[in-house]
Amino acid sequence: MKQVLPAAAALALLAVAPTPSQAATLTVGTSAEPSALDPHYHNLGPNTRARKHVFESLVSMDAKMRLQPELAESWRAVDETTWEFKLRKGVKFHDGTEFTAQDFIYSVCRIPNVANSPSSFTVYTKGIAGIEAPDPHTLIIKTGKPYPLLPVELSTFGIISAKAAGGEAVTFDKAGCKADSWPTTQAFNDGSLMIGTGPFKHKSYTKGDRQVLERNPDYWGPQAAWDTVVFRPITSDGPRVAALLAGDVDIIESPPVQDIERLKSAPNVSLAQAQSNRVIYLALGVQDTPPTITGTDGKNPLKDPKVRKALSLAVDRDAIVKRIMMGVAEPANQYLPAGFYGNNPEVTVATDANKAKQLLAEAGYPKGFQLTLGTPNDRYINDDKVAQAVAQMFTRIGVQTQVDATTANVFFSKRNKQEYSVFLAGWGADSGEMSSPLKALIATPIKEKGYGTTNYTSYSDPELDGMLDTALATVDDAKREKLLQAAVKRAMDADIIIPLHYEVTVWAMKKGLSYEPRADQYTLAQKVTPAK
After folding, report:
1. Rounded CA gap, 515 and 270, in Å?
2. What is the pTM of this model?
3. Tens of pLDDT along 453-473?
């Protein structure tokens, strides 16, 4: 058994602004705002970015998504279904109480009991069959079957204080943990339960305006360079760039691709970029009654594999990357880029409008039909522009398509109610490997397994679910990867989740700051440093 051990308006204004090394405050302009501060409410990128400053995990990942110790100093597989985690001693929550094994147990218990979660973290906890704590700094975690991804999945959610939440007596029960009550998401949004072990303490939050954090002077790890961090959501691209150039913020994420060359030539701006693990995709719903499709006498044409394949063939991914993303992206042929664990090099996609029209005719839709494509307009890079391009491509093959572009909050609410037959969204694999998108996006929603937590298509393939079951119970890394590669091929052949492109993430910052670009796209203030 393998043992896992720690192993530019106003460039002039920008020029005279205080240098970052002199500043005690770092102001970050973000491209999106979290839907809540509750670390267990919504498995969504902006939420995870926010929680990583306050709430930590047993295990974390570096910029290249390699595992590293966090609240657990070390871990090892005792046998195929038993893991031992040695917890870091001397760690204090922001209220001064000691971090112990009970805090992990309570956090795992709370995750399935978060009310109205749009995308639950149960996808990462359902493999846990039992938890014991022989002492306050040792965890013995049992799985029902071999589960080699356990350390990876424990890096995806934050640990809250059992004492602060009144959960000191809660014990783990696979069938369902018992508690008199569970903390509400509002208790985190109002700050009363924003008590973590992270490098920053929560100070204030005004939705739509800013979140303010203060450095945690008692943090167990390296101290951050900033006494205060202010996160300002500036969801419109132009104002976000303008804020940087005017000196109102120190670093911004996701500057619009059309401004990259201008920023490169700005004398007081530096850039950092890297390919991300986020795929932008189309999801095709196979509901019995399609909510946004007309011209089919009430039938859902997306139930026909030929129609789904036609829509995939209609998409010119290279054109999207070149014309819409201006080269700051990579065409996608599956759910994770080459080089990530589980990517299948034999899987390909094609663009063929003539073949697409032929397939539509064969399926009984020679004159096509009409649909509405749902998309956020402030969540992903050029999301509404990409959706408009896709709509034009669909229309060229006879599927008359209009776009419903809304703010992320409205979009996710409608998506979660399955009010779209086709929608555009994105997925970043927090685990850095292929089981993450497969389990969340296309697996059959099976609560007890944590499958299908973000499957809003009504699609179900028991054979694919079985392939995932087998892969996730295979300890041998090489064998497990081959199983995941087979599973992603089957998923791609179904054309339910149609990948478009992988985002390349760019950060722009004042000269004098340094940031290592991250594959997971998170902007972490503790990793922003004065340049050496």
Report:
1. 10
2. 0.78
3. 999 999 999 999 999 999 999
